[in-house]
Amino acid sequence: MISSVEAGPLVRQTDRLENGVAWGAIAAGAVTSAALTLILVAFGAGIGFSSVSPWSGEGVSGTTFKVATGIYLLIVAVMASSVGGYLAARLRTRWVDLHTNEVYFRDTAHGLVTWAFATVISAAVMAGATSHIVSGVGQVASAAAANAGPIDLAVDSLFRSEGAANATAAPGASAAAEPARTEIARLLVNDLRNGAVSPADRTYIARVIAARTGLSQADAERRVDEVVTATRQTLDAARKAAAQFALWLAAALFLGAFGSALAAVEGGQLRDGTWDERRLTPRPL
Questions:
Q1: 65-84: pLDDT as tens digits
Q2: Total number of domains constituting the chain
Q3: Claim to verify: residue 8 and residue 61 sit in the same structural domain
């Protein structure tokens, strides 16, 4: 048992706290952790943009970039969460007349609650700011390119005309083709959602492409097969990338919770002057 008598001059009557949760300290640690996360994300985004190049053979590879991004996400989570948990424990009011095991548990709980609070703040308040920082490089792209998805690119590839077909196109032909493009885009979305393009839709799409581009029916069907295969590969790659990011994020959250709880225990021991099972005494003023 740690009593106020044993604690000596470090314990004051004002240190007694009936509530086991110091919400003020938790809020301070959580806000600090969220702000530090934003700073580190901005720093990491700057490093990432400077290491990526559109030119072949320049900059890091895509695989290296994804792995480095995941590792950096882990580092950010551990650093920001540890700082938040440490501050929450150091800023709390000291608990007296409690067993050391109970103090250890409360400090661990404060670290976890601080991490949870910071995670909620980051998700609810900082999502827009973080997305803006991470996607800042996209501002240099045109609006059309920014809005183009795999299905839009697939439709563009299907309707691509060769040489003379573009030169002989009648005025307004592009506007007239929009309903057909929209219809084919809807068919591709529905079929790819189900796993494959149905034979009837494949034949119909090829017939429309043949009429718009001047290709033969066989060539149009071959183009449809090639575009559908490429689009499925693109969508599958995007799915795998999203799954990998989700796994990295889950690992980062887990390590962040662990780091926050561990740092809170250390901060609480330093706050009470009992770090590493040794009693610390304040310096004389």
A1: 778 888 888 999 999 999 99
A2: 2
A3: yes
